[in-house]
């Protein structure tokens, strides 16, 4: 790719997107990186403060659901590639308000696909998806790229739908696409509504730790920087039209993970071991709660040579340390004030 390569990263102010933007800014100084983000409750420009003065970084505030705006943006910039992470991402919110998930995850993705296929330029469209499209596993087996789609939540149904559209644009219009389906991520800058950051924040504040059902559901956890390294590799080396599963072979039952986190936090906070565990509170189960997710990432390992850099224990330690060093970040994002602050600095379009 030449010296003027322009890459559009959507959702770059969110959890995973901010790690992807940082990695691309640092590893590819010759690329111009455009971060397009609506700055919903989950988007936070503070996540990128360390790189936002880089000469190859550009922020655009905007909504992928606005098709006219997206078309204009592509006419203005003629991007060489798109890495699409913008989404509504929380299952519980999708149960409460499914239509927003249809708008952003499905309509927003189709708007980007339409803009990406226009004109003569051959540009890569990389769609970041989730293992949740495959549904739920029993006690054994792994999701492979051949596993049949079987989404159960409005979130996973919207992501499955967007995946189908992306493949349809490859088959119908010959758009150069790649898709990856990743397992649960954890790490710095994760909004504290998801299990790990919520639990860290609640332990710190001595609040109850809500465990859905009996805590027997299993998730396969991957450190966010390892997801970013997989995205880098797939964007550059992935075969057009292909799907790659990404996961760390790190299965944890929720209750075991929370107990382990409680011990880690007790040590870090200088509390007597067992103190934080007393905060565990079993609550009503999530509707349609998938029992188990686990990824077979052997295609990515064998074909592109990817492997995670940290074990779960190392990644969790780094994560806890980051949150304890950044309690001001936690307090700001839970207060909601940060949104008003950034809203004043950027106007739509
Ligand atoms: P996130 O919720 O932290 O961030 C999403 C970002 O998208 C935010 O910055 C938000 O402001 C932006 N956004 C939302 N709606 C938008 C819109 N209409 N227009 C423009 N920007 C908008 O999400 P995340 O956890 O970083 O996930 C990123 C992507 O990775 C998503 O596509 C998600 O489905 C996928 N994924 C996430 C996980 C995970 O464990 N978090 C695992 C696998 C795949
Ligand atoms: P979450 O972090 O919301 O990710 P996902 O639903 O995409 O896997 O939840 C991870 C697991 O933790 C899931 O099985 C639901 C469960 N959970 C709780 O038990 N308590 C909580 O407060 C939350 C947010 C999740």
Features:
349 residues; alpha/beta; Rossmann fold; seven-stranded parallel sheet; three-stranded mixed sheet; 12 helices; 12 strands; binds nicotinamide-adenine-dinucleotide; binds thymidine-5'-diphosphate
Molecular structure report:
There is one protein chain. α1 packs across α7 and α4 packs parallel to α5. Strands 3-2-1-4-5-6-10 form a 7-stranded parallel β-sheet, with helices on both faces. A 3-stranded mixed β-sheet has the order 7-9-11. It has helices spanning 15-27, 67-77, 91-96, 98-117, 154-173, 195-204, 224-237, 254-269, 298-304, 312-325, 327-335, 337-343, and strands at 6-10, 32-37, 57-61, 81-84, 124-130, 176-182, 184-186, 209-212, 218-223, 243-246, 251-253, 280-283. The chain is built from 12 helices and 12 strands. It has a domain at 6-183 and 223-249 and 289-310: Rossmann fold (3-Layer(aba) Sandwich). Residues 345-349 have low confidence and may be disordered. The structure holds nicotinamide-adenine-dinucleotide and thymidine-5'-diphosphate (TYD). Thymidine-5'-diphosphate binds next to α6 and β8.
